[in-house]
Amino acid sequence: MLEKQDRLDEERLQSAFTSQIFGRTLRVYESVGSTQDEARSWAIAGAPNGSLVMAEQQRSGRGRMGRVWHSPKGKGLWMSAVIRSGFRLEQAPPYTLVTAVAVCRAIRELSGANARLKWPNDVRIDGKKIAGILVELISSGTRVDAILVGIGIGVNLDEEDYPDELKEKATSLKLATGSAVDRTELAALIMKKLEELTAFYLQEGFEPIRSLWEALSDTLGNRVQVESPLGTIAGTAIRLDSSGALVVRTDSGEEHILYSGDVTTFSSP
Predict the structure, then answer these.
(1) How much is the pLDDT for 1?
(2) H helix or E strand, kind and range, residue 83
(3) Which residues make beta-bridge pairs with 246?
(4) Cα dihedral sign for 212, 215, 218, 219?
(5) Radius of gyration of the chain (CA)
(6) What is the arithmetic mean of pLDDT over 55-64?
(7) Within 10 A of 65 (CB to CB), how many other CB atoms are there?
């Protein structure tokens, strides 16, 4: 049973938000299958720009490639935003990286934790995943009707909250810093930073976002192995290209541009 002060309360959330649009239209649920599915249904029904779905618990939360996302009750931020900011179709793929920068910077500012970014959609602390991002589109031909931005963050999970298969791979802000974090304050800060970076991205393009992402990266400069549609690529992650794809240079000097894939990083010698 969640104590009242630990709950996600819609009135308190609205008071905490300082964003102009993002999160101002809000639905908070005790339990849902997936916030991303709720956001999709709401978007199709006409949800305005910046509408946000939040839940104390997801029964079937998902990450990239249909993976299950562990979402225990009252311990994390499980939320999805409906973004209708006038995106062109080619502007949508890099938005995962825009969101990752916003989430990472919010975590660092609020908690002091040394959060870093793993390409394409993970936020990590000391090599363990603390947050993931799932971006999906509702589009008609070349027109983007809405971008659905799913954000899952392990905020106040304890070690016993993780199944055995995740204990070596995942962590929470509470475990990483030794202190519980106010989920309402973190959600508000993420919405503020995402709103600011979205406007910045649409005005200035991806190039300055790329610099912000690279400054927080724990992928670039390291040896990586990427399971991609092209097969397994091993080498050194050297940069992002102008679309946010990862450029990997193999030991033979060949460069591969990867638009998707699962990355395993190894510290460079």
Answers:
(1) 39
(2) strand 76-83
(3) 240, 258
(4) positive
(5) 18
(6) 74
(7) 9
3 state SS of 137: strand
* Contact status, residue 123 vs residue 117, Cβ threshold 8 Å: yes
Q: Of 27, 18, 135, 131, whose CA–CA distance to 83 is shortest?
A: 135
Whole-angstrom Cα distance, residue 3 to residue 1? 6
Nearest to 35 by CA among 8, 14, 4, 5: 8
* β-strand partners of 79: 54, 151
Work out whether the CA dihedral 41, 78, 19, 17 comes out positive or negative: positive
pLDDT of residue 72: 77
Q: How far apart are the two ends of the chain, measured CA to CA in Å?
A: 48
pLDDT band for 65, please (50, 70, 90 cuts).
Answer: very low
Which residues make Cβ contacts (< 8 Å) with residue 34, sequence separation at least 6? Answer: 58, 59, 60, 61, 62, 150
C-alpha span between 85 and 49 (Å, rounded): 7
Q: Is the peptide bond before 229 cis (omega within 30 degrees of 0)?
A: no
Percent of the chain with pLDDT over 70: 93
- Across residues 139-167, what is the average pLDDT? 91
User: Is the predicted pLDDT of residue 91 greater than 50, yes or no?
Assistant: yes
Does residue 109 have a pLDDT over 50? yes
Residue with the two structure tokens 């905020």: 155
* Number of residues that make up the chain: 269
Does residue 249 contact residue 214 with C-beta atoms inside 8 Å? no
Query: Tokens 């630990």 label which residue?
Result: 6
The letter for the amino acid at 213 is W
In 3D space, the residue among 240, 214, 85, 237 whose CA is nearest the CA of residue 148 turns out to be 85
pTM above 0.90, yes or no: yes
What is the Cβ-side half-sphere exposure of residue 59, based on CA atoms within 13 angstroms? 6
